Amino acid sequence: MTLLEVEDLWVKFPTRQGIFEAVRGVSFSLGKERLGIVGESGSGKSMTGRAILRLIRKPGIVEAGHITLEGTDLMQLSEKEMRKVRGQRISMVMQDPKFSLNPVMTIGAQMMEAYLLHKNTSKTQARAKSLEMLKAVSISDPERVMRAYPHEMSGGMGQRIMIAMMLIPDPQILIADEPTSALDVSVQRQVLDIMDRLVTERGMGLIFISHDLNLVAEFCDRVLIMYAGRVVEVCDADRLHEAKHPYTQGLLNSLPRIEDPRKHLVALKRDDAWAEAPSVSGVKADA
Amino acid sequence: MSDVQTMRAWLLTDTPSSRRHAKLASLYKGWLTLRSNTMAMFGLAILVFLGLVALFAPLLAPYDWMAQDLGNRLQPLGAEGHLLGTDSLGRDILSRLIYGSRITLYIVALVALIAPIAGLLVGTVSGYAGGWVDVVLMRITDIFLAFPRLVLALAFVAALGAGIENAVLAISLTAWPPYARIARAETLTIRSSDYISAIRLQGAGPLRIIMKHIWPLCISSLIVRVTLDMAGIILAAAGLGFLGLGAQPPSPEWGAMIAEGRRFILDHWWVATMPGLAIFTVSLAFNLLGDGLRDVLDPKDGNQ
Amino acid sequence: MLDIENLNVWFGDGRDRVDAVKAATFSVKQGESFGLVGESGSGKSTILRAITGLAPHWSGRITVDGTDLGKRRDRAFYKKVQMVFQDPYASLHPRHSVDQVLSETLYLHGVGDIDKRVSTLLEDVGLGARFRFRYPHQLSGGQRQRVAIARALAGEPKLLLLDEPTSALDVSVQAEILNLLTDLREDRGLTYLMVSHDLPVVSHMCERLAVMKSGEIVEMMGVETLRKMTPSHPYSQSLLGASVSHKITA
After folding, report:
1. How confident is the model at residue B304 (pLDDT cuts 50, 70, 90)?
2. Confidence (pTM)
3. H or E element in which residue B90 lies
């Protein structure tokens, strides 16, 4: 079943030197699956995630054939209607929780506010729901965390709280933009496990944006590889290592490996043709 | 036309080929940003106009600014030969305004030189050195900040004697503490950055770090602040003039002109209003320009 | 080349005192590449800061090339030891062009013929002359890091301290920078002390490494131990586990 379908998405920024195209004609679909978007900085992966929510700041322009969320074209909605989609139906987790939480409000107050904003219920119920959410992201003493301020939390805790907050309104789709890159490896795993469990249990769609090929290969079902604003390859995550596109292969080869020492790493040789080739469609055939 | 095109391309390049080229290219980009801000350009235009007026005052002024004509006193606006009328001694107000622009520019230029430089010195040294140097310098700054500005300036002028130079000095003495505060705050963030650590690792001494590495980053925010403060400085100078402690009659300083016109404000309103409008226009122009400059010079996002 | 004995580094005083490094002891031989591995807050970068004199309070012994270091570092020290910082976006002065950065550094080291040396330095780090007059905002992350490396090499140091030099870069750029560092070390006989949280990177660059946890060195090992996945301390094992389970074996 397709939750979200994006067709021919462009993100453009007018600059003095002409129009800069950050995303160039990207199409893909998302079912109840974990879809990874990988690429290097400047490949347009984050812009793609933001463009879906129409979060591109002016003077940037989003253009698309359509961005359909279960039958509604998000491109046709007014800004006011869009605000209801953000958070309620599609949520987004950013890279650094420190910048996404309000530093002068307790975590509990922020979570309850988020809940009351979306659902018309009593404070007691909002509180109960917040506690439940914190438990869902494996926080052992939710009562204490509710009373704490963001700066008292470690990076891993902060990111879990963000995920909990994003899940409060029961969204159908979660967009995670480098959710674990600011975290240590050991904490990274815990956060990923929590996200994985929630997505599977709730039957959500997940768009996981990352620069880390191995992480995406392990964690996602399907992967789009982006280069210079286009999708150069789409493949199943478990077969990422058999990827055919020279860019994907080059990225994989340029990683140092513990078990395979060599004097020089293989540097990626870029080919201008990659940027020119038309974008590969990431629409799932059977969807 | 194609020459203009290549010139433009040369200035907009991302691959400058010499030191001079790089400097020019970054200046040109700053100019383009400023030019896209209509209000700032409006302000700049007024100030350029003011500069030209001051420069060509003898050519532009229809009369001598001192020439009295007691038979022709307090003429209204548009009176024959006197576009803006005449004052209580029959002097042409337009001519006096034109010559007064020289005094205004003189005050502005002097204060703009003295106050920010003093502030920059105190602020960066205080911020970079830290410890007791910081404590001493900042407490001195606090003492200056604790007085109302005009009152402190009045006290200085009273001690130094009335006159335009002393007014400038007094205004500068009261204007530097905010600059010191800004420079110190900037220095504190810059001091702990990696590029300062890196240059320290090359063996650079504190003086060199402050002058070559910290000043260039503080100066831009000071320039913005100075332009925004200019209005206040002009008003302070006018205020001192109005109180009779700045420029002395018969000087055509705008504040002093208002003071003179005050006596007739009910029956002959233009005598005080015209210099007032001039002060208002120039102050506004500085504010508009300052706003535009902030967009160009802010080191935090001006580089994008 | 570098001997560190019983090094303690702390921040703050009295009740606010935080011990960032506790009794660290290790030594790096001439021409060797040594890695310090740990998670954030383990004190690995603090050791580098203590060596360079950027950390205010420390006790113990630091010896570089036979000279004990006191509280102050002199010019001779800065000629011998240089550092490459983690974030290339923060380590270059935003208002200085590449040319200014390198000329200033060469001037401070008292090198003559600055104009020519700047070009050779840029060639050495794989940046051509066309980058010379650019400002940092006109450079990519990898190019900036090359400039930072050129700056560190300007005084011809013997010991280079690398503070996560590639963690802010894309993997393909990381490969280029690591290759550059490998070549430079070979050409100039440099000694490296590298700090990283990335075990594969350290295993690629270093012959020996120390694993740090909350300010203490918990284990020192040769890189073969890492390759055979046989570290003895449970924390090293878990670190290794976390970074390998990451890598799906194709």
Report:
1. very low
2. 0.84
3. none
